[in-house]
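User: Glycosyltransferase, Catenuloplanes niger:
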Amino acid sequence: MTVSMLGPPSTAPAPTFAHLVRLSDDTGLFEHARHGVVRRGHGYCTDDVARGLVVTAREPEPSATVTGLTERYLGFLTHAQAADGTFHNRLGYDRRWRDEPGLGDWWGRAIWGLGTAAARSPAPWVREEARTAFALGAARRSPAPRAMAFAGLGAAEVLRADPGDPVAGALLSDAARAVVGGAPPYPLMGVDWFWPDDRLTYANAALAEVVIAAGRYDGDASLLATGLRMLGWLRDLQTRDGRLSVVPVAGWRRGGPRPRYDQQPIEVAALADACVTAAGATGDPSWEVTLRRCVGWFLGENDAGAPMWDPETGGGFDGLTAAGPNLNQGAESTLAFVATLQHARRWS
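Assistant: Predicted structure for Glycosyltransferase:
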């Protein structure tokens, strides 16, 4: 299936939550599936439940089914949160935690999910409960720049609803500076490699997005320009012959050979989110072009020319390999697909 990049992908389906429902139970969201069948033995993780809360909470007119998912995911995250604001990540199918609470990526994504629910849920009680859990977790800081970036995106959501929130404002500013390394001039950001690390890994565009959001919120023109340049560099790097070709799961180190596969849906969804933030900050229509390419990647405008979702189940495929899609439909990939389709409403 080929999708024209001259306008909105006319074949883009509406976001479907069918597979997300299939992956969920009364506790939370299962992490893995074999094709479309849930693998319950692998249990749940805060990382994916938090991603789920971002997607369901930002649905503009949620159905009763989607509202139920939001409530379930919020309940999971508040259960995962310790009294000091940290979070467990892995819960077994036996409902026992497999780890101690910490400040890894899952903490950052939990703060992102809670911030989104606090800002966007139509239910006052959900907003209140999410805001309470957000404030507790947002008082912490992670040593990991990516975890800080995810948390900062949650802070940016809270600031959309309450621009004067001091906890969210401090977290967003700290997150951006954790990414870029303090004040300018920023390390490693040269002409040929405009990135604050010497390796691209996963959800890369989220780092640029939080810098853009902080620069806009703080009124810091230099920080905003840096975030936009980071995102533009990443966009150009991942565009090949008018389509997306994102950095695969193995990553890419500066100066080394760039692998082509296994491309992950999370990279495309992160780029889509960041382009929406950049478009809002600048009004530049070029970000809309990249957003269309993100939607197109899922619909078949990719290096394999293969759709990256299953129309029968509504699930997103787990990766793009040299042989085509990995047909497993886990939570992360399905959420990436749904999240990207949510942005396609901009053209309807």
